[in-house]
Amino acid sequence: MRIDLHTHSTASDGTDTPAELVRKAAAARLDVVALTDHDTVRGYAEAIAALPEGLTLVTGAELSCRLDGVGMHVLAYLFDPEEPDLLAERELVRDDRVPRARAMVAKLQELGVPITWEQVARIAGDGSVGRPHVASALVEIGVVPTVGDAFTGEWLADGGRGYVPKHETDPFEAIRLIKGAGGVAVFAHPGAAKRGRTVPDSAIADLAAAGLDGIEVDHMDHEPATRARLRGLAAELGLLTTGSSDYHGSRKSCALGEYTTDPEVYGEITRRATGAFPVPGAGGSRRSV
Question: Is 7 helix (H, G, I), strand (E, B) or coil?
Fold first, then answer.
């Protein structure tokens, strides 16, 4: 089985619609794909309606968190999307996105960058607006060559000249909320130092004690040495280890299925979840794109 447990659609900051994403996942010969848009479940219905035969969809979300000043993301799998406490927290994060993006545009304008809110809003479309959309605008007007180049101290990285903080959930609270909604919690790309500061291993141990189920180990932003260290840490702490593409369509260079999750780990995730179940596809051809 080929299992990719971290992807994004136009419901947040990917460039493929949910329907396009599941069709491309089938064409990439994936057996299981998780839709984990940032702080939203708006892509579920479209993805399920378009789900090709032979492909299973895991519903999820990537929750924005912050611990001791360090930004981090927690992947929530197979939770009840209508559970009121987790729903309320997702809405808090979502409602802060537009004011925050507008404030980043204003800061960049003060720096002399010819960016406009209308440009960023056009790029975001119906998605949950965020830094990647602002970064895409900077690429569009030639300020930086790639989206990744916008995530530096000069521009949009944490603490950068154009950075504006947003509402982010305490990860211990996120774990509590995910568990309360019947979901499974996995720390996304915990060693992605190229993105900025990362939380120490001692914090991961504390999160494990609080109910964290796993950590994402095989990821494009982890060097081989980082993967080995995280795998050893997971073994010490009794955490599951996942692998995922973190696919964003054309916004990032990674391909669907570039990194995958062991079928036994996927089975354990589905066994632990009580809020929702994986959705088997019954639609069109696996080869359709």
Answer: strand
Q: Name the phi and psi angles at 156, rounded to 5.
A: -115, 0
Burial group, residue 49, by CB count within 10 angstroms (0-12, 13-18, 19+):
exposed
Mean predicted confidence (pLDDT) in 104-120:
97
Structure confidence at residue 95 (pLDDT): 86
Torsion of CA 202, 205, 209, 214, to 10 degrees: 150
Of 200, 201, 196, 192, give the one whose Cα is nearest residue 221.
192
| Cβ contacts of 179 within 8 Å, gap of 6 or more | 185, 211
Q: What is the pLDDT of residues 216-241, one digit of tens each?
A: 999 999 999 999 999 999 999 999 99
Could you tell me which residues come within 8 angstroms of residue 207 by beta carbon, excluding any fewer than 6 positions away?
Answer: 171, 172, 175, 187
- What one-character-per-residue DSSP string does 122-150 give? HHHTTS---HHHHHHHHHHTTSSSSHHHH
pTM equals 0.87
